[in-house]
Amino acid sequence: MTQVRVKDLGNIAYDTAWNYQESLLQHNVRIKADKRNHPEAVTGEVTTNHLLFCEHPPVYTLGKSGHLENLLISNEQLQEKGINFVYTNRGGDITFHGPGQIVGYPVIDLEYFFTDIGKYLRYLEEVIIRTLAEYGITAGRSPGETGVWLEPGNPAKARKICAMGIRCSRWVTMHGFALNVNTDLGYFGNIVACGIADKQVASLDKELGRPVDEAEVKARLSRHFGEVFGADMIWEDMG
């Protein structure tokens, strides 16, 4: 089985995590370029796969296909509220990251698995759907809208619990998913989340009516990632 190294980065600034992902991606891309340029080489470095978990201080991020008008507050208000704003190179529109949210960044070489971006996103969604099912939450997909939803078939109640946005270079991925676990949903009131004006957001603690152990959620996400992708998940010590 393909190995995926799992690491919990803890609470980390968005830019810092982005730079770390980028370094892992570029390392893999260089290895793949060397293999293409020197196909006769029998030995050499191999690409590595990672699943990074983290939490960010409050930040709004705008994807490369996003629209700035979906940020509903001014720069002055952002400063007053202590919220950062970052233009990022993932797909998708605007979203929020902050305390109580589990962010997952898979930096994986899809050539170990399959070379299909749509399938990759559906697999990520499946990881979240299976994890939520362990908490008695039935989640699903909303046609044409990436991410994981609760009651997607009911327009009056449909709400997104997990947003997704990725980048892929030479079939190596970065960025990923943001699952609301113990998240203050008030932050989403300052944006048109994911550019979708007519639907709400959700968090696991609000659905269950109690705080949720985030370490437990990460362990379950890792296990289901391994099941869905057919990978051997190896947890690494941050020390």
User: Uncertain regions: pLDDT < 50 for 5+ in a row?
Assistant: none
- What's the story with the biggest beta sheet? 9 strands, mixed
Q: What distance lies between the first and last C-alpha atoms, to the nearest angstrom?
A: 26 Å
Task: Give the name of the CATH architecture.
Answer: 2-Layer Sandwich
User: Rough shape?
Assistant: globular
CATH superfamily, please? Bira Bifunctional Protein, Domain 2
Class from secondary-structure proportions: alpha/beta
Radius of gyration: 18 Å
CATH class: Alpha Beta
The amount of helix comes to 25-40%
Helix count from the secondary structure assignment: 5
The total number of structural domains is: 1
CATH topology-level name: BirA Bifunctional Protein, domain 2
- Beta content: 25-35%
Order of helices and strands: EHEEHEEEHEEEEEHHE
Overall average pLDDT:
94
The count of DSSP E runs of length 2 or more, i.e. the number of strands, is 12
What does this structure look like?
With 239 residues, the chain is α/β, with parallel strands linked by helices. The protein has one domain: Bira Bifunctional Protein, Domain 2 (BirA Bifunctional Protein, domain 2, 2-Layer Sandwich), CATH 3.30.930. The strands form 2 sheets. Strands 1, 2, 6, 7, 8, 9, 10, 11 and 12 form a 9-stranded mixed sheet that branches. Strands 4-3-5 form a 3-stranded mixed sheet, with no helix packed on it. It has 5 helices and 12 strands. The chain has helices spanning 14-37, 75-81, 117-133, 204-208, 214-229, and strands spanning 2-11, 50-55, 59-62, 84-87, 94-97, 101-107, 139-142, 145-150, 159-169, 172-180, 200-201, 231-235. Helices cover 29% and strands 30% of the residues. The protein starts with a strand and ends with a strand. The model has no long low-confidence stretch (mean pLDDT 94). Strand 7 and strand 8 (145-150) form a beta hairpin. Helix 3 crosses helix 5.
